[in-house]
Amino acid sequence: MPLSRETGVSRIGHTLNGPAPTAAPEKKSTDMGSPAMHEVRDAMDEFMTRFDAFKQANDDRLSQVERKLTADVVTTEKVDRLNAALDIQQKTVDGLALSLTRPEIGSGAALNPVAREHKAAFETYVRQGGVGPLRSLEEKALSVQSDPDGGYLVPSETEQMIDRIVSEASPIRAIAGVRQIGAASYKKPFATSGAATGWVGETEPRAETGTPKISELEFPVMELYAMPAATSTLLDDSAVNIDQWIAEEVQTAFAEQEGAAFVSGDGVRKPRGFLSYDTVDNDSWAWGKVGYVATGASGSFPVSSPSDVLLDLVYSVKSGYRANAHFVMNRQTQAQIRKFKDADGNYLWQPSLTAGDAPRLMNVPIAEAEDMPDVDADSFALAYGDFRRGYLIVDRLGIRVLRDPYTAKPYVLFYTTKRVGGGIQNFEAIKLLKFGTA
Prior knowledge:
The chain is α+β, with helices and mostly antiparallel strands. It has 12 helices and 16 strands. The chain has helices spanning 35-68, 73-101, 113-128, 132-140, 156-169, 171-175, 232-236, 242-264, 308-314, 319-322, 331-337, 387-390, and strands spanning 152-153, 177-181, 185-193, 213-220, 222-226, 229-230, 279-281, 290-294, 326-329, 349-350, 360-361, 364-368, 382-385, 391-404, 412-424, 430-434.
């Protein structure tokens, strides 16, 4: 297999999930001429300009290495500076694209009468502390999740908006499987050994088959909270959309806490992250453990043919899981990989062609998770696989809000809670890259 003299990357690099992407038609918007759309376009244009500058500087660095076996300090510093600028600009583009897709919570005119009544009662509770109408409504609904000490359920459209915003802001939630439940845990049975099978002739006697053994995975839900504060002036201002305010205040806290737990949570009062399970060399893989491929170099990619280990990682996953696979890494790891080329001189990392879409590595989308570890000795800084089939997030229906006007006077605190769990549901679908010798 031909390898690049610069990086030793196989020519197969850009065809893992099909042909390299071509320019896609620009996504339509309800208001293509809006200032927000112009801002996103300008940020995207600036990102592509910076990426072109980065490629030129890195090409100069590689040329110097090829001629003199080393690169000038000035050139290396320029590459690193442009690489960091790319990360900052990518974050700006992602933030603008995310804010552009957020819907405004409606006035309630389209809601059914019961939902409209609950929305009005909830707003009265949030603004003024009146609990009578809201308590009466939830008693009618036989709600066991809400009480004066535990808070009251937010309106369904507010809950949906919080879930949507968190899904867009949380990298693992955006690519994982998600299931909503009404109980304290979710149990998923699976067969540890199937029934015996075989081939027989038409008239031959059938041997008695063994009974399959069934085990189960359990995903308990844990309580996650945020506590935004409001002034009395904000609560008295009828122009302020209280539902929208609560949703936007808690989304960052929820997304950050979930992101850390889904990656490395230990399962104690939080979901269990996919990096917290026992790991094993993929050649010795067994159910219940996460397989890994070693780079062969402690704390780094190999000096020679550094990108070949990415191919080894990709093909350690069965073909059925590769069609919907993602790479998962943090910004620091992505900055290193951004410099890799294939044998034809094409960069393996390619930016998204549309604002809000993920960049790609070897035509595989990248989920950038800042809670992934940095490249270090024996670290698992990069994961690959079908996370929708491999990792399950369990949400218990209902987000609660408890109004607290006493603890931080003159501010009013809103103790907002949701219950969520998570863990690996298919150990075949996710593999890790270990930056170590074995």
